[in-house]
Structures are given as C-alpha cells and as structure tokens.
Specification:
Blueprint lengths: L7 H21 L9 H15 L2 E2 L17 E4 L2 E3 L13 E10 L2 E10 L5 H18 L8 H14 L3 E2 L5 E3 L6 E5 L16 E4 L2 E3 L5 E3 L7 E3 L5 E3 L2 E5 L4 E3 L16
Antiparallel strand pairs: 1-4, 2-4, 3-12, 4-5, 6-10, 7-8, 9-14, 10-13, 11-12, 14-15
The chain binds 2-amino-4-trifluoromethylsulfanyl-butyric acid and cobalt (II) ion (CO) (2 copies).
The site of one cobalt (II) ion has 6 residues, from strand 4 and strand 5.
C-alpha cells in the first residue's frame, strides 16, 4: 500500500476521529490511580467508545503473524514497551503506564497515547515520562512540507540520547487514515534529509518508545503481543496523530485533557 494524501473531507474525518481518541484518554484519566486494574481501564474505554459511537481499532486487530488483539486499548506498565494486554493486576503507587487508544469513526482512524503516573513515582520515572513527551514534540515541531522523515527521526533520537536514554528501533510511527497502519513508516531515529519528503495532506503518527536503559526489546511470554525491555529498564511512550498542512502541522489528537506542548514548541 502506498501513502494516502487526505483531501478536505478526509482531513475533517481525521480531525473528528483524532479528537475522539484523545477524549477516551480524558475519560480514563481520573480513574488511573493505585488499585485499578488495567482490565478495568479497558472496560471503561469500551464504555466510553460506546457512548461516543466509535469502534476500537485494536479489538480483534490481527496483522499477519499475530493472534487477534484481545482488548479495546493497550496498557503498557513500567518495563513494558508497547502492546501490553489489559489484565487483572492492580496498578500500584510508583507505576508508570502508557495507555494507547485507537478509535474508528466513520471509517477514519485516530491513534494517540499518553503516560500516566500512578500515585507518587520516582524522580527517574517522572523524568523519563516528561522527556519522552518532549521527544515526541521534538519530532512534531519539525513537521512541514519539504522536510524528510529522517529529519523527524534524527531530532527525536538526538534529543533522547543526549538525555541519556535510548530509542526503541523495532516499532515506529505510521501513516494512518482509513486504515490503522499505512505507509510510510515513521522511524524515531535516523539521519537528516533521508527517507520520504513530507507533503501536505499526509497524516501519520509520531510515537517514540524511549527506554531508560538499553534500546533492546524482547517479546514477553507467549501472548504474541507484549513487548518488554530486555534489561527490564523502564520504558515510556507518547503518541499523537498529525497532519502535514501547507505551512506546517496540525495535531489531530487533541482534546480538553491533552497536556499542552512543551515551552520549546512555538507553533
Ligand atoms: N495503537 C498502536 C499503535 O500506535 C497499535 C496497537 S496494535 C494492538 O500503532 F493490536 F496491539 F492493539
Ligand atoms: Co500508532
Ligand atoms: Co497507538
């Protein structure tokens, strides 16, 4: 499949889906406290999507070689890098958890994730969550026609590594539209001026996975989905879906509860 460029109608569809995905995270936010299980978070998300009239893109999602994904969202706790499957274990004070929501509205996909700190967390965990948010924005702020995907990856990698963290290589951002995962792949590392040139109408995610320790990851157990850091170090991730406009970018996955961009971003 090749890159799809969205027209005015597609952009409007993507705006609605993106906002709704973000509003699911808003809905969950007050509930993410010590004692809640990730399964309960999943149930709340399904409830919210039902009220919205959206469909979870992850429930039953089955790329080639994978078993069908069994939940309405992903919950990746502590050293889980991505694709954590909700379970019956309560979250405890000090945990960090990524909640990743993808909804479908009128055929259009919106994909976004945030980190949540459960009660009081360590200074190291707080720093990882904050700097991973900044790393995502280091990528987003560069988006405009004429730059290349390698410029985005380079900016994220340079920022993460200069802060002593590492960038996961095995998973990347992706084009998105009427499909969950479209071309192009959006790597969170790379070299300036390389790869695809950005053009207006492209929509893709930027979703860096940043590890406090080494970059290497492995599959956890045999559920076919859960990815963890090899060295068991903490991992964080934030995700937005963005549109390339004529002059820059528009973040499509914003809502009332979205954290504001960091001070270094002047859009
Ligand atoms: N939402 C994830 C992404 O950002 C993909 C999750 S696929 C799932 O691309 F099946 F694990 F849910
Ligand atoms: Co994504
Ligand atoms: Co996602």
């Amino acid at each position: 499949m090749s890159i799809t460029y969205k027209d005015a109608e597609g952009i409007q569809g993507m705006r609605v889906a993106g906002r709704l995905a973000s509003e699911v995270l808003d809905y969950l936010t007050p509930h993410i406290k010590p004692g809640i299980t990730t399964k309960e978070i999943d149930r709340l998300a399904a409830e919210c999507m039902k009220k919205q009239g959206t469909i979870s893109a992850t429930l039953g999602y089955q790329p080639a070689g994978y078993p069908p994904y069994p939940a309405s969202l992903c919950t990746s706790v502590n050293h889980v890098v991505c694709h954590g499957i909700p379970n019956d274990k309560p979250l405890k004070k000090g945990d960090i958890v990524n909640v990743d929501v993808t909804v479908i509205k009128d055929g259009w996909y919106g994909d976004t994730s945030r980190m949540f700190m459960v009660g009081e967390v360590s200074i190291a965990a707080k720093r990882l969550c904050a700097l991973t948010f900044d790393a995502m924005w280091q990528g987003i702020m560069r988006v405009r026609p004429g730059i290349h995907l390698g410029d985005i990856g380079f900016a994220i990698q340079k920022f993460a590594e200069s802060n002593g963290f590492s960038v996961v290589r095995e998973f990347c951002g992706h084009g998105i539209g009427r499909n969950f995962h479209e071309e192009p792949q959006v790597l969170h590392y790379g070299k300036p001026g390389t790869l695809e040139e950005l053009k207006p109408g492209m929509t893709f995610t930027i979703e860096p996975m940043i590890n406090a320790g080494r970059k290497d990851v492995k599959e956890f157990g045999s559920d076919g989905w859960t990815i963890v850091t090899k060295d068991h170090s903490l991992s964080a991730q934030w995700e937005h879906t963005v549109l390339v406009t004529e002059t820059g970018y528009e973040v499509l996955t914003l809502s009332a509860g979205s954290p504001p961009p960091p001070p270094f971003v002047n859009a």
